[in-house]
Amino acid sequence: MLVKTYGSAIHGVNAITITVEVNIGKGINFLMVGLPDSAVKESQQRIESALRENGYRLPGKKIVVNMAPADIRKEGSAYDLTIATGILAASEQIKAEAIGDYIIMGELSLDGGLQPIKGALPIAVEARSEGFKGFILPAQNAMEAAIVNDLKVYGVENIKQVIDFFNGEAELEQTVIDTREEFYASLNEYEFDFSDVKGQENIKRALEIAAAGGHNVILIGPPGSGKTMLAKRLPSILPPLNLHEALETTKIHSVTGTMKRNTSLISIRPYRSPHHTISDVALVGGGVNPRPGEISLAHNGVLFLDELPEFKRTVLEVLRQPIEDRVVTISRAKCTVEYPASFMLVAAMNPCPCGYYNHPEMNCVCGPGIVQKYLNKISGPLLDRIDIHVEVVPVPFRKLIDASPSEKSGEVRKRVIKARTVQEKRYEENKGVHCNAQMSSKQLRQICKIDEAGHTLLKNAMEKLSLSARAYDRILKVSRTIADLEGSPEITTDHLSEAITYRSLDRESWGV
After folding, report:
1. How far apart are alpha carbons 81 and 104 in whole angstroms?
2. pLDDT 10s digits, 35-76
3. DSSP 3-state assignment of 482?
4. Domain 2-177, classified CATH 3.30.1520.10, yes or no
5. Among the four 323, 338, 395, 404, which has the fewest Cβ within 10 Å?
6. Taking the model in full, what pTM does it have?
């Protein structure tokens, strides 16, 4: 008897429906075709044990399992339940009438229990678009899949529940999620708050400007000055995710299996902080069977690179294209996949190998030329994509013991949202541009117009501070954001003056 069941394969951050055809005939053999990997082939032993433990059996006949389309590689153990259900139906141990109405996925334990799968959300999205009645999957993933409307999602604990459901002996409990309620419930739940940081008002101001315009930031300062502490709190002042961004972010984390158990939706901006020993493939994504990297996991959030000069040069260089295009393309001989990578880059570094160059109290012990050599580990093209350079100085003791309350993240966020609203209106006719950091050179000339006094100030600053030519556009973009924060339609000399102070690493005398 021939029976068809349906599963799904992940391609990029989307899903492709897989038809699992099971045919049982004369003979004794178990054949699996359709480009399965080792994990899929090993399902025979898991299925056999799971069925036996629940009072069923693997037929002692010739079983042929075909997974179509046959030219797409099938990976992982999530097809166990799909194949097991097909075998039971083909051997007439369960009724087969309704099996074709459902996507069925899950990894089987030897006792018939179900383990969680990856990519439940994109699979559910594809199941709804192809008109399936429902999606049967492990209970741990049910809330994640249930945020897709107009699709019945059934979370199950073991294979016996699935068998009883198709035999009409028991009903499965549908998992129902109010997507909007779930989204808004945890929209402002941030573990870290700007009010935790004592002092560093100038750094907080710089991060507020960065958040308002979507600008990348680099923090330079000695150990213990608060660089990491400040970076961790940046997501709390960014505008909240909208529902579309939340779904997009959840899909990426669902594919990589980084969703927390019994979680439905990621509603706060992600914060990723990879170690400096990371490989370029782990950072941007890829591998033999492509998977999203850290920059995609940071999509719609913050990517924090601590100890920037300690990262391998090749790792930093692969960041240049995703920062510019906000998407990363992984090409292989058999396929090409695209992963979204629209993130804010926040980098931190010591000013020199010993960490105390320009320190107000400690002496730098680095030899002549060592500081500049250390800074040269970061290439000019990468620095060109970082709009704001800020020097972080240690917090004095009197500030640390100051008990007066600091401004909370919520107050800063209100100003950031107001500035972003202005920018969204400004760029509403420009596809793919949402904030000042994303504007093109052509838009820069139209939007960032300055008067004669501004031109004179900028000219003098570039000459006296030995600023590089690449600083010019960045200063204009940042000054436009500062003007937006103040509600000013024009860029004034005050805005330009503040923007100029955020170009420390462009000064030719810095580190000499």
Report:
1. 7
2. 999 999 999 999 999 999 999 999 989 999 999 999 888 999
3. helix
4. no
5. 404
6. 0.88
